[in-house]
């Protein structure tokens, strides 16, 4: 008998028929003699709908109240999934995140899991019940409901698998696994049999929404091997695990695109020590996540700093800087919110040269202008005009021979 954690995402529980399908898959696993802990998301679209409603009553909703509201989405699906199991004679009991003992830090809307105390859940599991846990939510030390950031049900599943020492963790979604690129945008994208934590983490943090990036970080930290697979068929999925030597043979594992970026250009800054620190410090204080930073020193003692930020933060970035300019004795800022980032990722880059050159050539041939470039050990990212994101992604995918054809 194994203990298996299964997570079903929003599309997989999107309506009553799909919830029944999930229930019968859970029963099949249990019939094989396993203990099953299930994590479910809100029905597809529900979290977005709730956020839209919150914004309709207040432009910047209070984050405690937002968490109170967002937790509703998952609470609906846990109860419906438990009832669907009862209907096919499977004993099952639903748990909210707080009831499951998921303790988080204080940060509403993007809380981190601090620890899990699964005592109650264990007792029901040992009594032979299937446990259905609401993804994406927890409880902070003050007894307040928190949520774990968008896509956070992935994190609930991985963290429960770690806390319960599960034998298996399966992330069921609406595609067959992790592909070389988003299969909805690149038709000949190929499903990967396996991928390392580091590659999955880079893809996730650069825009592949198939896994929440913090959940992958957590899995790496606690050594949780997991499989991403489809809830609509029985095809084997993609195993995500620690890197092994042969993985370096592949130079580029996959391509990710983040379409929701902006470019911020700060110009006419006095070129003296401390200016970049002041600019980036002000952005840090405003909790703005800055990426792809480039500084140029122009003529006449002025410097220019260009960087990318998530599109939703562009306005805040522009507002945060004038006090810095006043202190530094100069500076101007302009934001362009039409940016996409295209990244290629692979652990093989460590031992193979020429990745950037191939990438730049592919983009040149596809007539895509590169606005910014950044590299890390296992990733090259370029910022391009959002209108060119798809063309760029397909060109790069083909240039590295990633397609199935
Ligand atoms: P769930 O609701 O199950 O959590 P998500 O919508 O969060 O599912 O993630 C699945 C989606 O991720 C897929 O439908 C696919 O469009 C997208 N995706 C982006 N990049 C990739 C990739 N490299 N491989 C697979 N899916 C990807
Ligand atoms: N329902 C949440 C969201 O849409 C969490 C999740 O689906 O993983 O972000
Ligand atoms: Mg998801």
Describe the structure.
The protein is an alpha/beta fold and 405 residues long. It contains 12 helices and 18 strands. The chain has helices at 16-31, 46-57, 63-87, 119-126, 153-163, 197-205, 213-222, 275-285, 314-320, 322-328, 355-365, 389-399, and strands spanning 3-8, 35-40, 92-95, 102-104, 113-116, 130-134, 137-139, 145-147, 168-173, 194-196, 226-230, 238-241, 254-270, 291-297, 302-310, 332-345, 372-376, 379-385. Strands 3-6-2-1-9-11-12-10 form an 8-stranded mixed β-sheet, sandwiched between helices. A 6-stranded antiparallel β-sheet has the order 14-15-13-16-18-17. It is globular, with a radius of gyration of 23 Å. The model has no long low-confidence stretch (mean pLDDT 96).
Quick take:
This protein is α/β, with parallel strands linked by helices.
List unreliable stretches of 5+ residues.
none
Q: Helices and strands: which structural class?
A: alpha/beta
Give me the side-by-side strand order of the main sheet. 3-6-2-1-9-11-12-10
Helix and strand element order: EHEHHEEEHEEEHEEHHEEEHEEHHEHEEH
User: How would you describe the shape?
Assistant: globular
Number of helices: 12
Radius of gyration: 23 Å
Distinct ligand kinds: adenosine-5'-diphosphate, aspartic acid, magnesium ion
